From TrEMBL:
Source species taxonomy: Bacteria, Pseudomonadati, Pseudomonadota, Betaproteobacteria, Burkholderiales
InterPro entries: CheY-like_superfamily, OmpR/PhoB-type_DNA-bd, Sig_transdc_resp-reg_C-effctor, Sig_transdc_resp-reg_receiver, WalR-like, WH-like_DNA-bd_sf
CDD domains: REC, trans_reg_C
Residue ranges of the annotated DNA-binding region, renumbered to this chain: 127-226
UniProt name for this protein: Response regulator transcription factor
Annotated spans, Disordered: 231-260
The keyword DNA repair is assigned to this record: no
Amino acid sequence: MRIALIEPDSRHAEVMDRLLFAGGHTCQPFTNSSDFFAWIDTQTCDLLITDQWAGDLPSEDVILAARAILPGLPAMVMIHAPRESEIVASLHAGADDCISKPARGPELLARVDALLRRAAVRRPPSPSRGRFGEYAFDVARGLARFDGQFVALTPKECRFALLLFANLGRPVSRAHILESVWATRRDLKSRTLDTHASRLRTKLQLHPERGYSLSPLYGFGYQLDRLFAEPPAKRTKGAKGTRSPGGADRDEKESSIETL
């Protein structure tokens, strides 16, 4: 996950960076909130960790302003030798958790993981296969199956689809998508991500009439929603148009993907 860190103490920021990297996260450090807000105008993050004094603003003001840009952003406050009253004040002011400084590695990573779980950021259960309701995916074969039909997908389209369905009804940040689908922490042009989302919407028929909506979240990422519980009525098996040319090949694909 991509974590934004506001820490005026450069030495402690370096320690935090190493700890978070060891836990499989990307850390973007800042010495003050002004630099953080300049960055977040064009970037996204999955979690904010800030010092009680963010270099130029108190943590409660930073968290409030950050959530105006990224609604629901989880936030953790670091406090040196915290008193109970300081922890209570931070939590009442909007922090999701507090941690003492200097950070202790295992505790820090456990608290980060707990926050991300509560924020409902999920990874697909399998990087290569998955079944979600009427949709089944096989990344290795580049196939998606739904409503008795097969659709060819590129590997990136398959991984993108798996990530969206694993987080059905939850926002997925651009940073999370880039790391899970493109295996990169560097930014890509918005058009690249938008193009892949548009292709998925078309290929998988993620439209309201089928009970799904794939929507861009401005400045954040994408969200796939289920609009009603039951899939639309399917045509009767054997009806005209349900058998495609190359039936033998289709049966072979069906047999392989039924194991999902």
